[in-house]
Amino acid sequence: MKVIKTISAAFFAAILGATGSTAAADEVLASRLGAILGQEREALSIVPDARLDLLTSLPPADARGVETQTRLIYDRSFLAAQPVADGGEQWTCLAEALYFEARGETVRGMFAVGEVILNRVDSDAYPDSLCGVINQGTGRRYQCQFTYTCDGAPETIAEPRSWERVGKVARILMDGAPRALTGGATHYHTKAVSPSWARRFPRTATIGSHYFYRQPVRTASK
Fold this sequence. Notes:
Layout: H1 2-19, H2 23-45, H3 49-56, H4 76-81, H5 89-102, H6 107-122, H7 130-134, H8 160-174, E1 187-190, E2 203-207, E3 210-213
Antiparallel strand pairs: 1-3, 2-3
């Protein structure tokens, strides 16, 4: 595991430097420590990814009772007081996704859906742009990542107030707002459905009508 290897190098350096040992003793000590850490890596390699992900991840700050400075942006009055937002192609893609996927949610619910999209952009497993993530799979009916892009229904913005609201959320997220709601989620679904992947992915949050999940990251082992 990459993390363990990194820690191992630092651990060796700290111990060997502190003891002031000889080169021969250093080699013996390093060999013994390497064997111990190798056993730990081997043990961790058999732990299911979903279980390991749960064990090594902190829940969202709100779930741990940690006060955050981001609470203000989830307030409807605060959002209403912000200037009307605009932007380029990437902003439009995100605002449209929030409109069609979450306009009926609370402010927190809209931010949560936006977090998922931004988390995917940051992941090597997905396209590296907002439009790329949102339109992944579009063109194949019901085979896309976000249903509104491939369900055959026209994408019509018919609620100006909702559009203005999601546009502000998109702008705040793109301007670097902390993602403090979903614990790094990369997936979500409404409570009305139960996709097969939801049984394998660790659930990180429940907000409004959505459950949120983080896709497990498979760790390499030798």
